[in-house]
Fold this protein.
Amino acid sequence: MIQIGIDLGGTKIEGIALAANGEALAGRRVPTPRDDYDGTVRAIAALVGALESEAGSRGTVGIGMPGAISPATGLVKNANSTWLNGQPLQQDLERALARSVRLANDANCFALSEACDGAGAGAEVVFGVIIGTGTGGGVVVRRQVITGPNAVGGEWGHNPLPWPEPDELPGRECYCGRRGCIETFLSGPGLVRDHERVTGSRMSSEAIAASAAGGDPHAEATLRRYVGRMARALATIINVLDPDVIVLGGGLSNLDRLYADVPAQWGRWVFSDRVDTRLVRPRHGDASGVRGAAWLWPLPNPI
């Protein structure tokens, strides 16, 4: 039996079929039917069918999703793809696919992939960070995702930015209903807003990075603020979880300077005489989320 992973994103749904050794047998990507819950369920079911047809085998199905399934209600909660919230996604998918499915937060799937056979392979504790449209996190201990009784394990992005500077208070409003969340500073849109706030110029995160590399002092200052904020935010993770490895994923993980500059600063905030935690790039890149979704089912033969 193959293992199928689905990464349900806000703009695309990606699917992969894996053999037990991690080899990709099939892969496809389709647009997400935004604001259409029933259409989203149908799109996932059709994608699973197409992957099984291409791979020539029926498979287990794991799904990485924004938000989480509430242990209290069985319904989706905390998804920034808001048309999913309050819906019985697991039950509807199991009905559509005629089998059990496993769902997990997309950041948890990313962290699981990198812990199983990625940049965190062999580490006891891995923290996976998503810095893209939103900011999420996932905790994996000995290749097991730590979800918690409230299904919010690793929800790093919806804590307040620690040790805030005066100009960071009270913080921007977040879609979760609070102010000053880490996500409002460290997501891609947060970086764009911060640059516009200081300079009056609206630029994409990619353009900001390119301008800084080209010597623009304003773009360079924006990235320095971003690095400092990430160092503070990850220091709190180290203080609480003390992971062996922190893996960055999402669009902003492509900023090369993060891997040297953030560890150079986080020691100021970590409650230790030295910091041995490693900050690393993902081995599987954009494919980590969908691979981790496939690994939600136990591996027939451990990698």
